[in-house]
Design a protein that fits this description.
By secondary structure, the protein is α+β, with helices and mostly antiparallel strands. It contains 9 helices and 20 strands. The chain has helices at about 120-130, 145-155, 170-180, 215-230, 245-260, 265-280, 325-340, 345-350, 420-435; strands spanning about 1-5, 15-20, 30, 35-40, 45-50, 55-60, 65, 70-75, 195, 200, 235-240, 285-290, 295, 300-305, 310, 315, 355, 375-380, 385-390, 395-410. The longest helix is centred in the last third of the chain and has 17 residues, at about 420-435. The protein is globular, with a radius of gyration of 25 Å. It starts with a strand and ends in a 5-residue tail after the last helix.
């Protein structure tokens, strides 16, 4: 009998929500056949069968929040393997209570965006049944709201105030607040509520207004961005990049790439330049711990791309070991899978620095919010033809029209000083302007 356990779906993921079983007890499955759909704070994924055999027992229910390494089901690998169509998912009748859940550390009973701390399934259920999560008593660890809590609140009206959260390790946000408090009683603003004497006015719906509930992806993004802006003191520095040589190189080779089904883009050149500059300026390839910071060995560049569920940041691993062709293939693969909703947890985990490319309508430049736990993100601007001063054959200044782009580096001033940040951005600019890429 083989136990199929909850996998480690990313370096920062400690649990997942069982959203849908794709098999039933007694089903015959093949090796690598999807067994169950799992949702985490990063993405949704399917868990394949490690061996062929018969599903002997399903141990957890749909909607359960399950810690890493918890057994989900058992497979009898001695059973004869037959070719059968995938079973139609159905509601599972599980005998006995689900396995006990060990305490999962949580910073507080509120998310970074000010909302109630709840599982993804609980949020979805609350939206479906018009239940206000702020009025639901959470029974999970540290006051976390579960799907059962939402259903109980709907059926019984048991919407009392949540109990006081159990003592938990202080979050980085709480530590920052305490440090600032030493200088004069700092109270952090609460998103959606207000700050000090200022209160956010209540919303009164008007005819024609359209209220759009947060999706799970949007809530995760909101929490991430709020935490990042509060935890990291952002500083933005901007560079002007003359892309004359890079554009000529791209024009000379893009048709050759196109015949191979690939797009030679300026984004690929930018990622190559960033990876090389990070190897030379490792201070930007780091993350902050409680009372230290770590300079990471591998250079894994996250590239922000759009997906049906919103913005995601899949990762190009060891980007400094790839040339332009390898980067082009990686970006193309990640963008296609993001568009088709096939991005996995592993694709989204482990970035050590990020690059954001808003596209042809990206405007002049903008300061992006740092993708935690990175200490820097580079945002590309729109490429426009501009008048520039260049050096002629006889070293005299001349006027020319070249494609120019502004790049903005946002960096975490807790560990990155201005000297290191500006040196890094200067080096990225130099690499792009020289355009000595082997395409």
């Amino acid at each position: 009998m083989i136990d199929v356990n909850m996998p480690q779906l990313g370096e920062s993921v400690s649990e997942g929500t069982i959203t849908k079983w794709l098999v039933r007890e007694g089903d015959i499955v093949k090796r690598e056949q999807p067994l169950v759909e799992i949702a985490t704070d990063k993405a949704d994924s399917e868990l394949p069968a490690p061996v062929a055999g018969r599903i002997a027992k399903i141990l957890v229910k749909e909607g359960d929040v399950v810690p890493v390494k918890t057994p989900l089901c058992q497979i009898d690998e001695t059973a004869a393997v037959q070719s059968v169509p995938r079973a139609t998912p159905s509601t599972l009748a599980i005998s006995g209570p689900p396995p006990s859940t060990p305490a999962i550390a949580a910073a507080a009973s509120r998310s970074a965006a000010g909302g109630a701390l709840a599982t993804p399934t609980a949020r979805k259920t609350a939206l479906e049944h018009a239940v206000n999560l702020d009025e639901v008593r959470g029974s999970g660890e540290h006051g976390r709201i579960t799907k059962d809590d939402v259903m109980r609140a709907k059926q019984t009206g048991d919407n009392g105030p949540p109990p006081a959260p159990a003592p938990a390790p202080r979050s980085p946000t709480a530590q920052i607040a305490q440090l600032v408090n030493q200088g004069g009683g700092f109270v952090p603003p609460i998103p959606g509520v207000g700050f000090g004497a200022f209160k956010v006015p209540p919303y009164r719906q008007q005819e024609g207004d359209k209220v759009i509930p947060f999706t799970r992806r949007r809530r995760i993004t909101a929490d991430h961005m709020t935490y990042s802006k509060f935890a990291s003191p952002h500083v933005v520095t901007v560079a002007e990049v003359d892309l004359h040589k890079a554009s000529r190189l791209r024009e000379a080779n893009k048709e050759r790439y196109k015949k191979e089904g690939l797009a030679l883009t300026m984004l690929a050149f930018a990622v190559v330049a960033v990876a090389k500059a990070l190897r030379e300026s490792p201070e930007l390839n780091a993350r902050v711990l409680e009372d230290a910071y770590v300079i990471m060995r591998d250079i894994n560049v996250g590239v922000a791309v759009d997906s049906p569920d919103g913005l995601v940041v899949p990762v190009i691993r060891r980007a400094d070991e790839l040339g332009p062709r390898g980067i082009v293939r990686a970006i193309d693969d990640l963008a296609k899978r993001a568009k088709n909703g096939k991005i996995t947890i592993d694709d989204l985990s482990g970035a050590t620095f990020s690059v954001s490319n808003p596209g042809i309508k990206g405007n002049l430049f903008g300061g992006a919010i740092i993708n935690q736990p990175n200490v820097g993100i580079l945002r590309m601007g729109e490429i426009q033809k501009r008048v520039v001063v260049v050096e002629g054959p006889d070293k005299e200044d001349q006027i020319a029209i070249h494609p120019v782009m502004y790049m903005a580096l946002s960096y975490d001033h807790r560990v990155v000083d201005g000297v290191a940040a500006n040196a890094f951005l200067w080096r990225v600019t130099e690499i792009l302007e020289k355009a000595e890429f082997e395409v």
